[in-house]
# Entry
Amino acid sequence: MADITNITRDKADDRCLLKLVHPVAGTLALFTIATFWLSTALSELFAPKAIVIAVKTAIPWGFLLLIPALAAAGGSGFALAKGRRAGLVAAKLRRMPWIAANGILILIPAALFLASKARAAEFDIVFYAVQALELVAGATNITLLGLNMRDGLKMKGRFRRRAA
# Structure
């Protein structure tokens, strides 16, 4: 009998931990991507080339924070969904493959390429074309992650749902 109680308590503790990890990891991921995006845009618009080089070479180091945060948010989100595939959970789950694909196929390769070009001070047409693509893809992920955050807050009752 004590074993069943401990198993039930462990599952409850795990769920409680997931309910903490998910929003913290999701918020950290969203703010990290937003920081990359704003740093890039502001340095390109207003800063000297030395700052652009510093920003572009620092962003890949930020992956050490971003990738685990995204993995924790995604994994904890799937665990919290517990097989539910309707409503706001479904909307969040539909966005996740786009967020992941955008990051893996566009944002990470672009950031590594741009860091290499910046380190070599090669600010040519290719650099700026990839930079433009990275800014669009980054804005897309910020939007999708923001929508997921909004839906998560709605699910928690933090925002009222609009009447249809």
About this structure: The chain has a mean pLDDT of 90. The CA atoms of residues 153 and 159 lie 6 Å apart. The radius of gyration is 19 Å. The helical segments are 2-46, 49-81, 87-119, 125-155.
